[in-house]
């Protein structure tokens, strides 16, 4: 070969390698926490297309569709996000304080802890806040959360770049002391000045975790929201589902009534289904388990059991109350004959078909699954319970304790919560954010088990009670006056939005509907 042509061929080959390499790892992606988190190569998100076909098939279960206005606002938000995302020029200008007057204002979400469920609850609240205030939502995930979800906004990213200006400082304790809204409010009180100079700040930290103080709680006021409008960067940290309080603020109420006009108990359902599409790796595990164990069942029962301290409340103490709930009070599952009862063999006609039910047990302790499986596989169904076959399966999270610092565990937790959300009936533990997420994604009113501390002190009380709404509970709200639900019904007909006290925590409140 002619040496000149050989050199030219090598140059072309090198150029192709450079082009291919640039497609694999674009320059704009080099600052992301992990290279695989960069959205440069558009990958099909399987769960976004397939998830609807795996929804609950209970004919009595109806979920109202999202409102046309919500769908249009989500479309507008996606376009806004694409204009201002970390791969855009406006982001570079705003992050360098070169152009603070343009329409790219941001809220950066940082998780309050490492638990998957609490992150999903607080992140959905942060997204609704971004919608209400025309901000762009970015997330600051640590490596244990990377790769769990598809990018929710197509051809864009919500991940904060790894080398962003204040990324490391935002995780420090000093950041709250210097940049927080609560610190600004505290200084203002000390100066006894009537006007708060928040409009001159380029960045403020919103601390909305469970241990926030009275100055941090001033976030939940109309006048504070007015002051925050001109701050280009807000960094929010929380592990709470705090969006119910937005429905009590006059500055947001009109827009919220348009976004969710008829049904206030499906807010998390619609936002969660939009934001949290499992990654292809997670969806593969979900679909395989569903096809192997759940798809043929006529009723799928999800049982989520959370034990804070197994030494204080051992499984053997909890199991009788759990059985009382699922067999007697809710009548979800058939009762069994006692061990000392002589089994009567009844020959059924061949056309008598058994109703198939599946119990999906999710707990960090394996004892509950083992006991239920042994009972329903070795003891016959009690007389009068009909012809029922019951199979018991468990999810993957049987590790004794939650190891939420590992990406592998978070992946399994995501698989488990989505499998529970595909059930027709849910029985969950009180104060369980994992159960909140499963119920909210499913759009099901769950049965709440009794508080573990009441098993010995209040043995005669009901073992469980039915929730009136699938909405998660705002456990530690600001504590100011919450309007009485009855007041909302005066002069109104049909379902109206109300704030309800949580069934599992008397001091918390949640969204719901009430027929007057």
From TrEMBL:
It is a single-pass type II membrane protein. Its main location: Golgi. GO terms for molecular function: galactoside 2-alpha-L-fucosyltransferase activity. The keyword Glycosyltransferase applies. The keyword Glycosyltransferase applies. GO terms for cellular component: Golgi cisterna membrane. Residues 1-24 form the signal peptide. Pfam families: XG_FTase (PF03254). Keywords: Cell wall biogenesis/degradation, Glycoprotein, Glycosyltransferase, Golgi apparatus, Signal, Transferase. Its EC number is 2.4.1.-. Coiled coil: none annotated. It is found in: Golgi apparatus, Golgi stack membrane. GO terms for biological process: cell wall biogenesis; cell wall organization; xyloglucan biosynthetic process. Belongs to the glycosyltransferase 37 family. May be involved in cell wall biosynthesis. PANTHER family: FUCOSYLTRANSFERASE 2-RELATED, FUCOSYLTRANSFERASE 3. This is Fucosyltransferase. It comes from Linum tenue. The lineage of its organism: Eukaryota, Viridiplantae, Streptophyta, Embryophyta, Tracheophyta.
């Amino acid at each position: 070969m002619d040496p000149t042509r050989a050199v030219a061929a090598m140059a072309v080959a090198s150029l192709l390698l450079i082009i291919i390499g640039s497609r694999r790892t674009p320059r704009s992606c080099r600052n992301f926490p992990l290279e695989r988190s960069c959205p440069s190569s558009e990958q099909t998100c399987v769960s976004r297309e397939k998830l609807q076909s795996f929804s609950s098939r209970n004919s009595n279960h109806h979920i109202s569709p999202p409102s046309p206005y919500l769908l249009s606002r989500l479309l507008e938000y996606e376009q806004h996000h694409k204009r201002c995302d970390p791969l855009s020029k406006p982001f570079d200008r705003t992050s360098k304080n070169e152009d603070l007057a343009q329409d790219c204002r941001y809220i950066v979400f940082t998780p309050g802890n490492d638990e998957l469920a609490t992150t999903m609850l607080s992140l959905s609240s942060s997204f609704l806040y971004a919608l209400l205030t025309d901000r762009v939502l970015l997330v600051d995930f640590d490596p244990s959360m990377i790769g769990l979800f598809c990018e929710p906004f197509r051809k864009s990213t919500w991940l904060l770049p790894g080398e962003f200006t204040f990324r490391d400082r935002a995780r420090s304790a000093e950041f709250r002391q210097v940049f927080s809204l609560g610190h600004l409010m505290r200084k203002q009180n000390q100066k006894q000045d009537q006007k708060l100079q928040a409009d001159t700040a380029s960045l403020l930290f919103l601390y909305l975790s469970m241990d926030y103080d009275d100055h941090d709680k001033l976030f939940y006021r109309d006048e504070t929201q007015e002051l925050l409008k001109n701050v280009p960067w807000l960094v929010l940290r929380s592990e709470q589902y705090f969006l119910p309080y937005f429905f009590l603020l006059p500055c947001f109420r009109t827009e919220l009534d348009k976004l969710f006009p008829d049904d206030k108990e499906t807010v998390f359902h619609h936002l969660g289904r939009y934001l949290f599409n499992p990654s292809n790796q997670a969806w593969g595990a979900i679909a395989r388990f569903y096809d192997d164990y759940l798809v043929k069942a006529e009723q799928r029962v999800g049982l989520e059991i959370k034990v804070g301290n197994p030494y204080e409340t051992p499984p053997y103490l909890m199991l009788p109350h759990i059985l009382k709930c699922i067999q007697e009070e809710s009548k979800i599952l058939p009762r069994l004959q006692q061990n000392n009862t002589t089994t009567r063999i009844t020959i059924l006609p061949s056309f008598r078909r058994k109703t198939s039910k599946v119990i999906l047990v999710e707990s960090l302790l394996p004892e509950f699954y083992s006991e239920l499986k042994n009972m329903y596989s070795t003891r016959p169904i009690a007389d009068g319970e009909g012809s029922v076959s019951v199979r018991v399966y468990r999810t993957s999270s049987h590790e004794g304790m939650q190891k939420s610092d590992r990406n592998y565990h978070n992946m399994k937790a995501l698989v488990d919560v989505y499998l529970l959300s595909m059930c027709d009936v849910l029985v969950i533990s009180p104060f369980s954010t994992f159960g909140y997420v499963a119920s909210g994604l499913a759009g099901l009113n769950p049965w709440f088990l009794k508080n573990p501390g009441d098993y010995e002190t209040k043995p005669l009380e009901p073992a469980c009670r039915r929730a009136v709404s699938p909405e998660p509970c705002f456990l530690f709200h600001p504590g100011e006056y919450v309007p009485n639900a009855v007041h909302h019904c005066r002069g109104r007909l049909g379902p109206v939005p109300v704030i309800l006290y949580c069934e599992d925590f008397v001091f918390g409140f949640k969204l719901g509907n009430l027929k007057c």
